[in-house]
Sequence to fold (1278 residues):
Amino acid sequence: MFFRMRKVGGAPKLRLRVAPNVSSYNQTFIGNKQAMAEDTFKSSDSVRSGRPLRHVKIFRHDKPLKLELGGQLPEVTVAYEVYGRLNATADNAVLICHAISGDSHVAKHDEQDDAGWWDIVVGPGKAIDTDKYFVIGPNILGGCRGTTGPGSVNPAAGRPWGTDFPTITVDDIVQVQKLLMDHLGVRRLLGVIGGSMGGHQVLCWSVKYSGMVDGAMAVATSPRLTSQALAFDVVGRNAILTDPDYRGGQYYDEGPRPATGLAIARMLGHITYLSLEAMQDKFEADRFRPRDVPTEFEKVFSVGSYLAYHGDKFTERFDANSYLKLSLAMDLFDLGSTPEKLAKSLAASRCRWLVVSFTSDWLFPPLQSQQMVDALIAGDKRVSYCNVTSGCGHDAFLLRDDLGTYGELIRAFLANLSAPDGRPPAAKLSDSDTIDRRPTSIFHDQRLDYDMLINLIPEGATVLDLGCGGGSLLAMLREKKCHGLVGVELDERAIIACVRKGLDVIHADLNRGLSQFRTGQFDYVILSQTLQAVRDVESAVAEMLRVGQKCIVSFPNFGYWKLRKMLNEEGRAPLGGLLPYKWFETPNIRIITLNDFEDFCREKGISVLRRIALDTEAGREVVEDPNSNADTAIYVISG
Amino acid sequence: MFFRMRKVGGAPKLRLRVAPNVSSYNQTFIGNKQAMAEDTFKSSDSVRSGRPLRHVKIFRHDKPLKLELGGQLPEVTVAYEVYGRLNATADNAVLICHAISGDSHVAKHDEQDDAGWWDIVVGPGKAIDTDKYFVIGPNILGGCRGTTGPGSVNPAAGRPWGTDFPTITVDDIVQVQKLLMDHLGVRRLLGVIGGSMGGHQVLCWSVKYSGMVDGAMAVATSPRLTSQALAFDVVGRNAILTDPDYRGGQYYDEGPRPATGLAIARMLGHITYLSLEAMQDKFEADRFRPRDVPTEFEKVFSVGSYLAYHGDKFTERFDANSYLKLSLAMDLFDLGSTPEKLAKSLAASRCRWLVVSFTSDWLFPPLQSQQMVDALIAGDKRVSYCNVTSGCGHDAFLLRDDLGTYGELIRAFLANLSAPDGRPPAAKLSDSDTIDRRPTSIFHDQRLDYDMLINLIPEGATVLDLGCGGGSLLAMLREKKCHGLVGVELDERAIIACVRKGLDVIHADLNRGLSQFRTGQFDYVILSQTLQAVRDVESAVAEMLRVGQKCIVSFPNFGYWKLRKMLNEEGRAPLGGLLPYKWFETPNIRIITLNDFEDFCREKGISVLRRIALDTEAGREVVEDPNSNADTAIYVISG
Fold:
């Protein structure tokens, strides 16, 4: 027989694993040196066993805490860990907000310490460098790893809260984090960062305590869950609530805990954290070979045994009531379902933003990050955005695989926040900084083109640079005291280079429009040496003209006499000539002459305010017969 | 308070709805005229209440049935419905295979009849036209709507099988359908069609009874589930198996049924049937306004109340043991995890194929349909494939929204199967048949280009036409007794036009390679008037040369004197001249002259076997200075 099915329903349930008593655990686990059940599995899903946290600190707030949806908690305890030192000017603090199942143990404190859930990002020399920054990792309100939650004793009742624990929100969670900051003497946060539900906390911080946050880093998160993600949470909660062992949430003192329901909820959640591709890679080859793990659940398929193992493990370290309360807090989080509402929700934010999504994340899809970015742009916030190419799904923010991009973005973003305003970052430049714009670039010296562009833009103007590459032109414009500078770029490495330069850059495809920008938002919009590579020229130009008061377009002139001669005398595609590409490989898919472009402007009712024709080989402007004698054209146009 | 949470776990479970006793139901429901609980909801998910099926027929096979994984059933009963009449030549039968929760009631038998689950596709004048075809809809083995399943009485034990019902496979299901065909005197099946798990049955039919099937229509299905889809099934089964009311599967005689577990499994399944977008559209606006449905489950969010309602409803008409057995049968279905294994699995198939996927289906993603298509092509099967643009997710095959494409494909495919071989179908041609190839088309009379192409191809050759449009060229080649004719096309409407012509056409993007075709598979590969619109020319040409013994490439010559003159004398892009596009909108993104193409061939080591230079305006071949005097070039090349 090539599979086997354990029969479960008929026999009395075996409870192979009994979760620690969470209520007493919450009171006593701190400093307990006795290691709990050995954690023998290797996993990519950041699940860890319920070991004692040796470096955890406790802050007790012994006054009542009013809650957003009504009611109050009579007192709050916060478990947290800190890394690095607060500097003399108290401006190097970074707050880490964990996701639903995380805790205060963000990273190792020393080599002997247990692994933290974000060791890859936080530590000496890492992206969030604990040699530079004072890093704070609190366990969130409602959790079960030291901070007040449903497993804590309700003083009025003399027993754990259970289901009587009030419904909490992300706002409440953040309020408690703020109390901790006050306790620690942290008055400014250089950065607040979090992924998934941790990102919800970041979003909340940025508006609730807007005066206190310099930089917000929202990773793999959303303004509110998709209906799909919400639906998965609902099904997970139903599994817990209908577990007979749930017993109205008062299971702490004796008898079994609702481990079956919690494990089912976790298994379901686990699927949503992984991408389709990641699951194929992991389970496709040995589909019918389940691992021999001790579990009550079905063990027919490898993926089933894997999920069962991690589902069971989860119940050892996590409290079902915490899962219910925290997943509900996440589901209730809502910055708005329309662009207008979302922009309004984020209007109070005054920090700089780094928004990161992952291409294969279907639980918090990139589109939702883009909606946040759009809302931030609509509110004139300073924001950079990157949709990191990843096959790892939602879990990507916890994995080393994609650290090369998102880790570098975090590092560069923080470095610029701590650097003097408007100056290049202290961070060491690497190869990717040398990447510069326009792979479609033209004949000779690009510098002449740049100089001309810069001369066309008055000091103090706001500028959008489309296809900004590594940001060289924007950096030059910054030197010229231009502000409101924004780049749009498609290449991830170029985006890192921009963020290293302290520039605001949006990861977007020009061919999909500029709907994130307001009509007339910029004094100037630049499209330098890119028009000839644009698929939908009409829409792109129309969008530029909508967004900018004036637009500057430069492109190689295919009317240039050397190119004409090539086609005319040699009978060969002019693209294959002076340009560095052959006909079959050139990204230059549009043939434009000065005449063509001017015909186009006439036809579309576009005003040509100025034309500069350049002979870049000779290094000068062309006056006579520019359609023949210029190899490059620069136009200033308006709608 | 803007939400409310029903507390469930603490109180004894309310069983608001008690499912009919399935075992007796299986024995008695047929012909029962008393309507069961009124079905009051409107839904897109094809869920229907447990009404009696007035037109159901019963076939009893009273001999033992051996099962694929061992063991046997002592007897089998099959509930089925039929539509239309078997014709005199007995060659108009179409078998409908239902998905996990379907039944024999495929469509209404008359206006007074209850809705069927596929009324949109099956009926008089519909895609599967019951005026033409004899349509058979059996309930599948293991189900709970009349055909033998876990709720049927095990004669040896004198009580329902429950969990003792043997593990069945798709192969067993199909074996039982074959017994029904024998009983009905159906020796040939013009078509076998099914979506989702119904598609698995189609795949099985095509190889198990390969001599009996003329046409296989596999809709929204896969060679085996993705690991992700499998994982969702596992979690659903775990919810049922751990429901205390499951009681080892022997819940039929008294006491509650495992309705909670089954409802949770169904809720989870329901999410996977819908696309992200469809759920957003349905639930985003009124997220926090749950519907007031009677349910034990959480009612905080609209999506939750919706899922709970349908989950509860499902338990009224479906048996938990059937769900376990059928979902396991689906999960065990496996035609192979590698292209080689898959091709081997399908090697025995001798029918023509129509494979349809839906772009937003993430449970049975289009990539899996493409893998099947690749395997069929690798085995020289005749197959057409379309990835229908849809926002509806996996459920798309049950919805009217996308019927315009998939319904038309089914209609046209069946019409051609029943038409005399090699002749155009009887089906009425519509607008989309007039669509023809090459939106990038050239200067003058395309007919000359076609005639030349056809003359280059010897009678009896096998031909692949890349960018085949509505299939005119392929249809002409068919007249010339060419065979093994296959088209590749990107446009859905053009694909319908090809299928109407009885041609085999694959929905694919030329820019993504031709990996589905074998090296040297075709005598000729044609790329007519398309090269200039191809993004990755090198790969496309390399792939053509790999797949074809010889390749024929035709393209507009940008060395043509009128075009040269345009650039040279007028200083305007030659693309804007004689061709019907302007520089900013042309799909012709590559500038090619005869010289350029010949340089390219030389550089890449490609042999030019023949060159035909055409002046299509004059309607003749050009001999002198073809790079200047021809507006069109045709090359025969080989690798």
